[in-house]
Amino acid sequence: MASTKTLLICLLVLLDASTVASLTWTEAFGAVAGGVVTAVAAPIVIPAAAAGLGFGAGGITAGSTAATMMSWYGGKVAVGSVVATMQSVGATGGISTAATAVASAAGAVGGYKTASKKKY
Fold it and tell me: What DSSP letter does each residue of 100-118 carry, written as one string?
């Protein structure tokens, strides 16, 4: 799981210096809470969503949303594409640490934006 320090660093990178200097405790708490909740939820929700779309350990389920997505590629799915990535998640039942970190950073920014009540 991503640490609080990692989440704060991600937040600092994504925000400009003047915003960081003026963070309130509410905004900082929102960022940390959003990041932590996302870090915990992402490894559970993303594989479940992949399975629900038809990406599984036995391959793509016929007639599923995943099959439709694969048909967009004409059956030849490129390495690193959305379909390939989702099939990897479906086959292994998990996501990488890097994917969890990216989700955490997004959650931290979302938590900050929610706590600050600023428009996107």
Answer: HHHHHHHHHHHHHHHHHT-
CA dist., res. 46 & res. 49, Å (int)? 5
Residue 112: give the domain boundaries: 4-116
Place of tokens 């960022």: 31
- State pLDDT tens for residues 75-93: 788 888 889 989 999 999 8
Q: What is the pTM of this model?
A: 0.66
CA dist list (Å): 81 to 46, 57, 60, 115: 16, 18, 15, 34
What tokens appear for 79 in the block? 């390495």
d(CA 31, CA 72): 37
